[in-house]
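Structure (tokenized):
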């Protein structure tokens, strides 16, 4: 390996209609979450299905595409990088969130 890269690829269903923000700079921001399904077999040999939720953010042209074509229930593929950010809440506690910054989106649903 020449370089280790921060790369995330997910295929899942959109949990709610994306929130679109028009920033003062003229840039667009899209925020939404997608669900991915998986599973495992427990010690009793039973299949257990799991769902994981992933927070997605997209900027600029990607956000514009999401605004036009993505809504709740659609299956999409997301390519991007994992980021973590922090802030202080109203009580002064430090909070953290991890998000996928989407560089590319592929629409899989009709």
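Design, position by position:
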């Amino acid at each position: 390996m020449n370089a280790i890269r921060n790369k995330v690829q997910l295929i899942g269903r959109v949990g709610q209609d994306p929130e679109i923000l028009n920033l003062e700079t003229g840039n667009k921001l899209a925020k939404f979450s997608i669900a991915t399904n998986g599973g495992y077999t427990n010690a009793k040999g039973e299949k257990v299905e799991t769902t994981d939720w992933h927070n997605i953010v997209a900027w600029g042209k990607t956000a514009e595409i999401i605004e036009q074509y993505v809504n709740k229930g659609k299956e999409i593929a997301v390519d991007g990088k994992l980021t973590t950010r922090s802030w202080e809440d109203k009580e002064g506690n430090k909070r953290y969130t991890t998000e996928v910054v989407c560089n590319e989106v592929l629409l899989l649903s009709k």
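Reviewer-requested clarification: The chain has a mean pLDDT of 94. The longest strand covers residues 28-41.
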